[in-house]
Amino acid sequence: MSSSGVKVLIVGAGIAGLTLAIFLERAGIQYFILERVFEFKPLGSSMVLSPQVLRVFDQLGILPELEKVSGVCVSGVYMSHKQNVLGRIDVSFLEERYGYPNRVFSRPDIMDVLLRFIPKEKILWGKRVLSLLQNHEGAMVRCADGTTIHSDIVVGADGAYSAIRQALYDSIKKKNIRLPDSDMSPLRFDQFSILGVTERVDHLYPFPGEGCKMYNIFPSNPDQVYVHTIPYDDGRIAWRLSGPCLSKYLNGEASFRCSDWDTESIDDLKKYLNDAPAYIIGTHTKVISRIMVEDKFYETWYHGRTVLVGDGANQSILDSICLANLIVELPTTHPDDIEQMFSTYYSVRAPQARKAVAGSKTLGRIISADTPVGSVMRNMVLKLLSGPLNVKSMDGMYSGRPLLNYLPPIPLKGSLPNTAKPVTFGIGAEAKRSRATVV
Prior knowledge:
Radius of gyration: 22 Å
Number of strands: 19
Number of domains: 1
């Protein structure tokens, strides 16, 4: 649909990269995905997609396929280490208010669905990026296998501490442009987690009815693990363990591998798994994954012909919706037009991303408090979020439910009005607005 004939190179075949690829595929934009591994690895545990992003999958016609491999989340339950309930955050009202519920997925399941909607020849496996060159004429990525790929735009969708981010920073520093100190500070990996999915265990552990509930079990002291579990409809449990006691799993390569998924045996963890459902986790999971991340807002999102999308599932999909809408409107591949496009993208998405990171950090500090005073504050916050403040906070997150401007719009679902406005490049914006009204 773009008159520019733009060619896009997406680096990273995770949720962000695959979603953007589907958006570009529907728009008829030329693209390829580079992925460093040689084949898809079914790693990871659970993730939740919000009403904000489910709407665009409904517009694409993909939602029925996603519904087949997901469950509806109705609440989050927070418990003490003795499994006494400290608070419940109800989310059962989301579908009535925003048109869609929170849906819980196994990461391998959602990846499998997304891969079905991308032509196989568009994903180049085993392409580890070594360097990035960009100039007035275009961009070139060089891979470890000796190949080079040319494009007009490079999109880094390969994690918080990605190869493209580092290559982008290198190109900026070569021009003697100072990067913000916060962007250059090392990641602290204070959210190191170990996670996995059990075999079917509903015959061993009673599953609650009336929809999926997320269970969060706080440790009795800092030497124990925080346990997060989500029962699936098919009898499996998705789980995540986190806590300072797991820091020994960090290694000297951490600063270069923080966005990688790694696998190992469950055996070394069994000493931490004293309670049910933690015991069931340990005895009925064959392979686990580990991931090292930190909630961090980066000020630098683009330079030249290279742009980055976020790392978290929902934020990265919202980034991709905005970016795809702008790429479709790109009039030419001239650097000035690309600069204007990236600037618009940043102005729309950065404030929302900054707010999301700040909120996540604040909630994380409160929820994971391990002092007596912190525990009291945590219980107070949980009580507040169990009441009317819950709906108000959800409205702040889910009132804006964007669509792809270049596809036929779908009717608005849910009782709350939509606050999302069409994001346009600027050139021909009035004509675009006339046919891409907010619905």
